[in-house]
């Protein structure tokens, strides 16, 4: 049995139009931008609108955004070779260049999982050596994060966020 007591997986006929962003309000905003500067490209128009949407979201949802926690993962290498600029050094005229070995990126790396909110880093965790990244690993990370939130951000925990 499907949602809403439907028994068929086929689309039912409907009278409504598909959702679109080309309503009168958006058309007028784009038209006004073009009339202000006729040299605008499509990319510049999109960027302008995107900035306006972000500003609106920040002002309208700032309270909610302060309560969000997001995360990311990145590989951390034990050694990253220097760039040409980083390894450059002053030499006097006629002085021989120092010998350098060919450097390659380290094969030793570890996965860093970090969670942060409006105030900064809430929790970070390194993947233990030999650990496989799977459902159980992520569940343990989430459990650790939950405990950290209880102590570091009790306001989020108390508000049932």
From TrEMBL:
Gene3D superfamilies: Ribonuclease H-like superfamily/Ribonuclease H. It holds the Pfam family Transposase_1. Residues 1-27 are annotated as: Disordered. One of its GO terms (molecular function) is nucleic acid binding. InterPro entries: RNaseH_sf, Transposase-MT_Hybrid, Transposase_1. It comes from the Eukaryota. This is Histone-lysine N-methyltransferase SETMAR-like. It comes from Pogonomyrmex barbatus (red harvester ant). The gene is LOC105423410.
């Amino acid at each position: 049995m499907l949602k809403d007591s439907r028994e068929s997986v086929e689309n039912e006929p409907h009278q409504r139009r598909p959702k679109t962003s080309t309503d009168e309000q958006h058309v007028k905003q784009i038209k006004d931008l073009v009339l202000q500067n006729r040299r605008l490209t499509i990319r510049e128009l999109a960027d302008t609108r995107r900035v306006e949407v972000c500003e609106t979201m920040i002002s309208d949802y700032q309270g909610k955004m302060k309560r969000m926690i997001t995360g990311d993962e990145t590989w951390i290498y034990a050694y990253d070779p220097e760039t040409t600029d980083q390894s450059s050094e002053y030499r006097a005229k006629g002085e021989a260049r120092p010998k350098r070995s060919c450097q390659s990126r380290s094969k030793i790396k570890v996965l860093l999982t970090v969670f942060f909110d409006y105030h900064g880093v809430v929790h970070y965790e390194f993947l233990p050596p030999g650990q496989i990244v799977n459902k159980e690993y992520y569940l343990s990370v989430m459990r650790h994060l939950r405990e950290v939130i209880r102590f570091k951000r009790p306001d989020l925990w108390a508000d049932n966020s």
